[in-house]
Amino acid sequence: MQLFAARSRMHTSSKGFTLIEVLVAFTIASIMLVALLQGMGRGLRSIDRADDRQILVNAAQNQMARLGRQIELRPGIESGEGDGYRWRVSISDPPPDLASDQIAGGQLRLLMIEISVSDGSGAEFHLQTMRLVESEVP
């Protein structure tokens, strides 16, 4: 009886982890590490997509800046390529409900402008605006 009592005291007083406890801890840590790495990967992909999108936005803004200088402000379509992207500027008269013959006594008219930019991967960005320009004198 004393032998059994000594063993049970020894077993309960021992400090440390069992093999099962260690394996469970490693499994939980591995699952958490995999989830963390997947989250970081998604974050990096999102940053990369945002960078690509920003390039298209900058290209559209560059075309907007060319309006009235290098691109004539009159109805029509102009397109081109540059720095790995394609652009298209479409200028049109507004729909009849936005008729602009009343603006500044007919001296100004409204134009609708749409700028589209795309890259080789199929990503696109569209920018729409309106501009007031001097009316053409007949």
TrEMBL record:
Transmembrane residue ranges: 16-37
Main location: membrane
Gene Ontology terms describing biological process: protein secretion by the type II secretion system
Record's bilayer topology term: Single-pass membrane protein
Highest taxon above the source species: Bacteria
Example of a GO cellular component annotation carried by this entry: type II protein secretion system complex
Keywords attached to this entry: Cell inner membrane, Cell membrane, Membrane, Methylation, Transmembrane, Transmembrane helix
Subcellular location, record wording: Cell inner membrane
Protein family (similarity comment): Belongs to the GSP I family.
PANTHER family reported in the protein's UniProt record: TYPE II SECRETION SYSTEM PROTEIN I-RELATED
Full protein name: Type II secretion system protein GspI
